Amino acid sequence: MLGFKRTLYEKERNILSQLRAQRLALEVRRDETQRQVLEKDAAFRQKAATEGARIDEVNSLNYHRDNADKLVKQLDGEMAELDVKIEAQLKIVMQLDQDVKGLEKLREKQLDEYNAAAMREEQERILELISGRFAEEQQAGGN
To answer: pLDDT at position 143, please?
Structure first.
């Protein structure tokens, strides 16, 4: 049972790691999109200040900004969904961790009980041996 729980724990932990990696990838993508928009805005402002800007350049910038905003919003939604999945998966992992630790403690307790019982049996055998020899010596000395 302990082996099964350990295997299940590792499997669920790997799933949690994958979910976290997916979320991190989405976060990086969102941050990169926002960075690109800021860079385009800064480049546009610089060009507009020095050379002026044509209406098609303004429209293009607005189009890119709108698309980036939609993408960021979509990525935020996906990250929120992953946050819910991560939280649920974290609960599963924590429960399995407790189960594994409980089974390990039970196994240790059973091993301690077994060792204690084995030690008692060994002591009883030693006592029987000693009392048997003592009885033999008493009989030998009494004859």
So the answer is: 58
